[in-house]
Design goal:
two-stranded parallel sheet, Hydantoin permease, single chain
Length: 543
């Protein structure tokens, strides 16, 4: 109990972890030709260098042109474009889409400013995650494995997995609903879940054809979402003036508890904890020369520009959804929508016309009922267009969720498995609960409240991602380039920005207790002449 309490005390104050094995060999971080394992008794022995490819998240990386950084370059921006758009998929998953339509239905345009604020906060956090990955060469889960003691580390991993499972349930169920709509009910929910498992395997193996082609596929899915939801926006003809007023005026006139809870749900849907771990790993797909300060700064600059444009696009796609249902769903009852289904010439199948009950209660609002509403109001084509957009959102976010689970497992518990085994394991963790929900939910009409619950779960898990990343980028033992606003540093108690790198020759001095290139804390005294390291006895000081 004393040991457990000690570990939790260290975790609470973000202190240094004590190594479980004091005799574990350490590696001299500045010896680039040969690795010198150092033991507590001071003896040094030669050891072959571990191939870098075996340590990297990506074996094949996108090459960046080695040209002088004379300013902004469209060519370099194109080379760095990709990770930010994969990251932005989490801002467009079915959970976000359902939160958007519920926001429009209960508060009309008055909560768009909350959506904008959530995207701005998300951009700041994603910026930190990307910079951590670029400058350290490791993603958050790998750093957490070396930074925290065993019990807090495993707790973090469990929390991340819970967030991934909650997000995955939204994504898979959203995909299953879209297949149900596209097939006019011939594909039940549980069958849609099983189909999603299979096609996720198929699409994830597209990475074998290259990172750029894989990223292009995600860009295509984002384009599909933009086109389909844009079509619904044009059909619904929302009030543009009210839309922009709700975006810039941080006020909700006449709002009560329901609207407040919806605002909280928006934040929980937009800022996902596992997305920080994902983004810090995705930026490793570019071949950045981390031994040169200018190249690190250049990568950070272009990654931020790319992330800004990616989240800018995702924000407007979310706004399109809010606007459609703010215009058409706000203030409507079930009876109002049901009347449209029977009176308008919409060519809807008969079984869709009785989805909404004939009562005066507020209209049911979820992805399924939203599709039926669009079909009844604008014609059956609008229903199928909506289903295609949800299918693109669900499929893309399911794949990125699988990646997040893979990176978390590899980093936190250091499990190295072939790709198909990693996919099978991470998918199994999420598919079990999802299948149970779809089988025992009582049908597609009885899963309306599930999205709100899952958004709350992710909201609860958010501190388990925010605290670690703020800790990592503010710890002087970690090298980083954090050109953040001073107000951001004050909010998160960050020191002044600086570079601290264990393997960068452009450093003036190496701080004590820094991370070595294998992610371990090391106080090893390294000789100035690394070529003489084999003949020297290097003594490790106690932490």
């Amino acid at each position: 109990m004393t040991q457990v309490f000690s570990e939790f005390s260290q975790f609470a104050r973000f202190g240094l972890p004590e190594f479980e094995d004091k005799s574990q060999a350490r590696v001299s971080p500045l010896h680039t030709d040969k690795m010198v394992p150092v033991t507590m008794n001071g003896a040094a022995e030669k050891k072959e260098k571990v191939p870098k490819e075996s340590q990297d998240t990506y074996v094949v990386k996108v090459d960046i042109p080695d040209t002088p950084d004379t300013g902004f370059s469209w060519v370099k921006l194109w080379k760095f474009t990709g990770p930010g758009f994969l990251m932005s998929i989490a801002y467009l998953d079915p959970g976000n889409i359902e939160s958007d339509l519920q926001s429009g239905a209960v508060a009309r345009f008055q909560l768009i400013w909350v959506l904008l604020t959530a995207h701005i906060l998300g951009l700041l956090l994603q910026r930190l995650a990307a910079r951590l990955g670029v400058v350290s060469g490791k993603h958050m889960a790998e750093i957490a494995h070396s930074y925290y003691p065993r019990i807090p580390r495993l707790m973090l991993w469990v929390m991340v997995e819970v967030a991934i499972i909650a997000s995955d349930m939204q994504e898979v169920i959203g995909t299953a609903i879209s297949l149900y709509l596209l097939s006019d009910g011939y594909i039940p929910l549980y069958a849609g879940v099983l189909i999603t498992i299979c096609d996720t395997f198929t699409f994830l193996f597209l990475e074998r054809y290259g990172v750029r082609k894989f990223e292009a596929f995600f860009a295509f899915l984002i384009t599909v979402m933009g086109v389909t939801f844009g079509y619904e926006f044009v059909e619904s003809k929302p009030h543009v003036g009210a839309l922009f007023t709700g975006m810039v005026v941080p006020w909700c006139k006449g709002c009560g508890t329901e609207q407040f809870l919806q605002g909280v749900s928006i934040v929980g849907a937009v800022i996902m904890p596992h997305n920080l771990y994902l983004h810090s790993a995705l930026v490793k797909s570019r071949l950045v020369d981390r031994t040169r300060e200018g190249k690190v700064r250049e990568a950070n600059k272009y990654y931020f520009i790319e992330s800004f444009f990616a989240l800018f696009c995702s924000f407007w796609i979310n706004v399109l959804v809010v606007a459609v249902f703010a215009q058409g769903f706000y203030g409507k009852t079930n009876a109002d929508v049901r009347e449209n289904c029977f009176t308008l010439d919409n060519h809807m199948p008969d079984f869709y016309k009785i989805v909404f009950e004939n009562n005066t209660l507020p209209a049911d609002v979820d992805i399924y009922h939203a599709g039926v509403f669009l079909g009844c109001t604008f014609g059956v084509g609008a229903l199928y267009v909506w289903a295609v957009g949800i299918l693109a959102a669900g499929q893309s976010s399911t794949m990125t969720g699988t990646y997040a689970g893979q990176f978390a497992m590899e980093g936190f518990v250091q499990i190295k498995l072939p790709q198909w085994k990693r996919i099978l394991l991470t998918r199994s963790l999420a598919m079990g609960p999802t299948l149970l929900v779809t089988v025992f939910s009582g049908g597609i009409n009885h899963i309306t409240g599930l999205n709100d619950f899952l958004n709350c779960v992710q909201m609860v898990q958010l501190p388990f991602a925010i605290f670690p990343i703020l800790t990592f980028v503010s710890d002087e033992r970690f090298y980083y380039c954090l050109v953040a606003m001073s107000i951001m540093r004050r909010w998160s108690w960050m020191p002044e920005p600086q570079y601290q790198d264990f393997d960068a020759p452009w450093l003036e001095k190496k701080p004590e207790n820094s991370l070595d290139q294998y992610g371990s804390f090391d106080n090893t005294v390294v000789p100035e002449n690394a070529a003489e390291a084999d003949d020297l006895s290097i003594h490790k000081t106690a932490l």
